[in-house]
């Protein structure tokens, strides 16, 4: 994130050449207004940068998409499978064909994958690195698909098992890999079976979940296959530039191989590699115990079941399960939805999380344990960006120190406290979320662990302040509604939007020497006059903080920096219900 701040301040310096001196000052003040968390202590917040059948050409678009997310507090991105799939540019990546082809070789009718070329991938990874964002590779170990020819397997018959793999031929060579290289072909001997039938002389291996899932099932009992995959893992981290792996359907893969591969890749690099298992099993603790390596985390599917109950409006808010509330809480990767649980048409028949989704995100983003995941479909397609931005920012700047569940949680309200860092003033929080749509507010006397401190709700859902007593106790309210029933109370002394104010944002490149002005139906917004000049932030996001006028309508105008807005945004007016809407066009 430090590189990100440098980029932001560099923009301010450029603006000072054409703007009033006060504009440059306001930029630098804003960059330093939030608690300054040491880089090594910044919370990891992961963003799933895709959903099913989305974002073709992603590698070229990724730098611009990632910059505003990094500004909010995203520190890592789970990217879609980057290897060549059997359907070429039509493949989302889970029908993996050639592990060593990341959009570099003409195979399956294309050089590029669905997401772009190897060169574009390299450029995207470099841009993420400059933003301080780690990239995680979605690896599909279980199977291969798209064989180039059939083979006759004695005792079995014909099967599509002959793979030519041009990428492998170039990258997996004896010169490159020494003792990890073995001269063998990816033919039927590299697989256990297909269509849930074993090939002669094979066995399925030591899998935690049922062994056959789809495609040609890779034989990880074979030593040569194990060694090649170890070489590939080293290549992805040390040469390509990823920082970790999301391991698809890994409970169907031989557990001994999984352990050995993870330990080898971690051994082969000085980087602290991130490994997370998609183990879609009932006993996730049991799976982690079976793999038995401290480097592996797992997605918390059990916790998501609580979010399904929350969505129904009948969740008992006192009791929460999942990996994050177990002996392996430090190895949980929490999420609300992903590309499988939330897909158009719901092909897996998954129970859906539709209501109280912001509350679910508040739960995973602000607690002490677990690495939370923000899902791209929620953020952009479902329009949750304005609310998620505030929760991501709250995690980035305030969610530090030991965590405490409030002992007085009820069936309807859950509260949680972070003490903050003693070395960083302004950190810590009190989070409350309601699971009922009763209307009104409820307040709870909670120990914030911060005596004589004034708090305000960073989300803006509840106005006013709460000041704690000498023992750290204060009466913290939360709205009893689905639509605004989450609050994150943070210290007022440092940071962010102050109580009684509201921040409007608009993403728009207005060009050199111009600014975006916010105008509207209230005195705070000049009663549809020339507007209030906004402040530029990274990603061409303009924002202005004003006293909260309550109900109001607003638009933006473009004008010369230091002047007033002259050219109107077109389309309908915006209102207080969407503080960061899409630009309507015009100018």
From TrEMBL:
Q: Which InterPro entries match?
A: Alpha-amylase_C_pro, Alpha_amylase, Carb-bd-like_fold, GH, GH13_cat_dom, Glyco_hydro_b, Ig-like_fold
Does Coiled coil show up as a keyword for this record?
Answer: no
| Pfam families the record matches | Alpha-amy_C_pro, Alpha-amylase
Positions of the Glycosyl hydrolase family 13 catalytic domain: 44-395
Q: Which residues form the signal peptide?
A: 1-31
Record SMART domains: Aamy
Catalysed reaction(s) here are: Endohydrolysis of (1->4)-alpha-D-glucosidic linkages in polysaccharides containing three or more (1->4)-alpha-linked D-glucose units
The record ties this protein, via Gene3D superfamilies, to: 2.40.30.140, Glycosidases, Golgi alpha-mannosidase II, Immunoglobulins
Family matches, as CDD domains = AmyAc_bac_fung_AmyA
Compositional bias of type Polar residues: which residue ranges? 567-581
Give the domain of life: Bacteria
Q: Keywords in UniProt for this one?
A: Carbohydrate metabolism, Glycosidase, Hydrolase, Signal
Annotated spans, Disordered: 548-587
SUPFAM superfamilies associated with the record: (Trans)glycosidases, Glycosyl hydrolase domain, Starch-binding domain-like
Q: What is its EC number?
A: 3.2.1.1
Q: Name the family.
A: Belongs to the glycosyl hydrolase 13 family.
Q: Spell out the protein name for this chain.
A: Alpha-amylase
Species name: Alkalimonas delamerensis
């Amino acid at each position: 994130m430090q590189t990100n701040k440098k980029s932001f301040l560099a923009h301010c310096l450029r603006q000072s050449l054409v703007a009033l001196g006060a504009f440059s000052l306001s930029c630098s003040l804003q960059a330093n207004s939030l608690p300054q968390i040491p880089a090594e202590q910044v919370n990891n917040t992961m963003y799933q940068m895709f959903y099913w059948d989305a974002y073709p050409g992603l590698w070229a678009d990724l730098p611009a998409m990632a910059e505003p997310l990094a500004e909010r507090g995203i520190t890592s991105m789970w990217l879609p499978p980057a290897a060549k799939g059997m359907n070429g540019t039509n493949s989302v990546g889970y029908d993996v064909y050639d592990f060593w082809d990341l959009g570099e070789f003409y195979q399956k009718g294309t050089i590029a994958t669905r997401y772009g070329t190897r060169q574009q991938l390299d450029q995207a990874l470099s841009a993420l690195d400059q933003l301080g964002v780690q990239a995680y590779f979605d690896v599909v170990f279980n199977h291969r698909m798209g064989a180039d020819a059939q083979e006759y397997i004695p005792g079995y018959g014909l099967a599509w098992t002959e793979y030519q793999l041009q990428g492998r031929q170039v990258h997996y060579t004896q010169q490159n890999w020494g003792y990890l290289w073995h001269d063998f072909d990816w033919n039927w001997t590299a697989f256990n079976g297909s269509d849930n039938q074993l090939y002669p002389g094979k066995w399925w291996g030591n899998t935690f979940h049922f062994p056959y899932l789809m495609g040609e099932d890779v034989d990880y009992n074979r030593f040569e296959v194990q060694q090649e995959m170890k070489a590939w893992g080293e290549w992805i981290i040390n040469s390509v530039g990823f920082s970790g792996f999301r391991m698809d359907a890994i409970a169907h893969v031989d557990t001994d191989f999984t352990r050995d591969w993870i330990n080898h890749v971690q051994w082969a690099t000085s980087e602290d590699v991130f490994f997370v298992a998609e183990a879609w099993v009932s006993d996730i603790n049991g799976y982690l115990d079976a793999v038995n390596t401290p480097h592996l985390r797992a997605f918390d599917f059990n916790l998501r079941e609580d979010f399904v109950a929350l969505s129904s409006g009948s969740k008992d808010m006192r009791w929460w399960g999942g990996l994050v509330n177990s002996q392996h809480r430090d190895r949980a990767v929490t999420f609300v939805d992903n590309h499988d649980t939330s897909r158009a048409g719901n092909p897996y028949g998954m129970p859906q999380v539709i209501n109280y989704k912001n509350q679910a995100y508040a739960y995973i983003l602000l607690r002490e344990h677990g690495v939370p995941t923000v899902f791209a479909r929620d953020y952009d397609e479902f329009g949750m960006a304005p609310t998620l931005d505030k929760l991501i920012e709250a995690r980035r700047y305030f969610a530090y120190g030991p965590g405490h569940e409030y002992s007085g949680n009820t069936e309807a309200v859950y509260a949680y406290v972070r003490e903050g860092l003693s070395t960083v003033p302004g950190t810590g929080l009190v989070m409350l979320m309601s699971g009922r749509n009763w209307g009104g507010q409820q307040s709870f006397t909670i120990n914030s662990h911060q005596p004589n401190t004034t708090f305000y709700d960073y989300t803006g859902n509840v106005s006013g302040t709460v000041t704690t007593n000498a023992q750290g106790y204060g009466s913290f309210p939360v709205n009893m509604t689905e639509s605004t029933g989450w609050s994150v109370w943070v210290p007022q002394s440092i940071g962010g939007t102050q109580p009684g104010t509201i921040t409007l944002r608009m993403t728009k490149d207005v060009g050199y020497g111009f600014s975006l002005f916010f105008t509207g139906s209230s005195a705070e917004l000049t009663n549809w006059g020339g507007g209030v000049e906004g402040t530029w932030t990274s990603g061409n996001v303009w924002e202005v903080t004003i006293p909260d006028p309550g109900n109001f309508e607003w638009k933006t105008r473009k004008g010369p920096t230091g002047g007033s807005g002259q050219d109107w945004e077109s389309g309908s007016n915006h209102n207080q219900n969407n503080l960061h809407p899409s630009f309507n066009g015009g100018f």
